[in-house]
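Spend some time on the protein that follows and explain the fold to me:
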Amino acid sequence: MGDPVRILSGIGRVRITDRRSIFIAEAAPVGDEDAALRHLRGIREEFPDATHHVYAYRTRLDGESRTQRHSDDGEPQGTAGLPVLDVLLRNRLDQSLVVVVRYFGGIRLGPGGLVRAYGAAATQAVDMAGIAELVPVRTYRVTISYGAAGLLLRRLEQAGYPVGTVRYGLDVDATAACLPDEAEDFLSQVRDVASGAALVERLEDRLLPVGPGGRPSFGT
């Protein structure tokens, strides 16, 4: 299995004070650059009177190059946006945005103090949001008879292939997934259990969370 994609699990927001300056940091998952910019606009609208709106984001769509941007928003160059971006880089996060809003408290922090404050606020926001690991998988819809469905579902589970939605109609329709380099074995197991009578339809590739044992999982 290749390196998983790491994203934020949810939204995390923290507030810290450093020598009377207030820093409000929010970390959020964003699907693409447009989503990152929309979220940033929302933060600016929520805190229109803030002295600075510092941010950094990294986004990457499947099969496309990564977009990575940051802004000091008026702070001395390299003292704000870069420390926030460094938090994303150290955590190997994609499709993630961190915005740190500052209300100046009247006491200058100096370059080193700014780096520490922005980095600490971003780190705490990321920690609160949490990190999830995703892996690219191939997904399939398998249609099989009731008589063979139980055995197939058990076989796939034992082999570590995640099974998602299972629907019961005239036959059993199950959504299942495998890593790209496991596709041949996955299809072979389906054919073996169904004696060639299963209908297999390939669905869109997707990202699934890494579950127990490091295997992909549809989650709960």
Remarks:
- Residues 192 and 200 are 13 Å apart (CA to CA).
